[in-house]
Design a protein that fits this description.
By secondary structure, this protein is mostly beta strands. The chain contains no helices and 11 strands. Strands 2, 4, 5, 6, 9, 10 and 11 form a 7-stranded mixed β-sheet that branches. A 4-stranded antiparallel β-sheet has the order 1-3-8-7, with no helix packed on it. Strand 9 and strand 10 form a beta hairpin.
């Protein structure tokens, strides 16, 4: 079993910053990608940012230039700057291993007030 534990969510004013963390533990095969997705009420879950084991990154257009994904061993981070009210959502950590099995964290709420 793989466990993903997220932290760092909260309430922030527009223009502010937050840093999310996600620590992976358990029976992890080699990691293919780690990343972040988000889901706002009434919306589908969407990709925010992912990082491949080789270091390449992928960002949603809406967060490019504002969010930065990074990773240190089995922990992935999401630095979120210049936050906007439309960034309000539950943020979920995701891990995909080399067998393409995907795991999800429990989610952490980010609320950006205008």
């Amino acid at each position: 079993q793989v466990q993903l534990v997220e932290s760092g969510g909260g309430v922030v004013q527009a223009g502010g910053s937050l840093r999310l963390s996600c620590a992976a533990s358990g029976s992890i095969l080699r990691i293919n990608t780690m990343g972040w997705y988000r889901q706002a009420p009434g919306n589908q879950r969407e990709l925010v940012a992912t990082m491949h084991s080789g270091g390449s990154t992928n960002y949603a257009e809406s967060v490019k230039g504002r969010f930065t994904i990074s990773r240190d061993k089995n922990t992935v981070y999401l630095q979120m700057n210049s936050l906007k009210p439309e960034d309000t959502a539950a943020y979920y950590c995701n891990l995909e291993d080399l067998s393409f099995r995907r795991y999800w964290g429990q989610g952490t709420q980010v609320t950006v007030s205008s």
